[in-house]
Amino acid sequence: MSTDSNDSQPISFDQLADLFVEQGALVSPAEVHGYLCGQLAAGSRLSPERWLLAAAEQLGVDSISVEGFGERLDQLHRQTLTELETHGFELQLLLPDEDQGVGPRAEGLGLWCHGFVAGYTLAGGPRGEGLSEDARDALDDFSQIAQIAADADDEESQADFEEVYEYVRMGALLLFSECNRAGAEQCAPLGTALH
Fold it and tell me: What is the radius of gyration, based on Cα positions, of the chain?
């Protein structure tokens, strides 16, 4: 595990995007982050080794071969779990920076939601019984938001995007909370260790 000076700084979309390109990845960092959040929300806890294998599969590559990429993916895993477990609603979705405009950010949000639903489903997260109506609605809405598109880049589009972003962020936190609270073993797949 890396403990270099970069480890204390949150990893950015651009940092990962550069590594994704170098690795020859077939997906966006937003989709991989969504996948990771979905896995964690469903109660899955992967070891660093298993996370790298799962990440390589999501990237569409046989293995993580670019120098420093494995450490950054491990950092992303630890950073994301910490954000989800903190009771201060600190989760930040890994999307293109604001200076990219609404279009790329909306596309990234759609990919993030697609990844979340895939990760949540593959980890065996519940869809009906065991979830509140709000959590079930959020999960259903994520499937719809995965189709999001923003053509305009004006103030109204920016405001709409911010509203959807916040809804997704809070929905992910709600799903994590419901499936990872004490006594919520029904949300976690068999054999999955909860913190």
Answer: 16
Q: What's the pLDDT tens digit per position in 34-44?
A: 999 999 999 99
Could you give the domains of the chain? 11-187 (1.20.120.740)
Nearest to residue 31, comparing CAs of 110, 145, 147, 138?
Answer: 110
Q: State pTM to two decimals.
A: 0.87
Higher pLDDT among residues 193 and 119, named by residue:
119
For residue 117, which of 38, 27, 30 has the smallest C-alpha distance? 38
Burial pattern 117-152, b for ≥16 Cβ within 10 A else e, equals: bbbbeebbbbeeeebeeebbebbeebeebbebebee
Helix (H) or strand (E) holding 76: helix 69-85
As a whole number of angstroms, the distance between CA 70 and CA 99 comes to 27
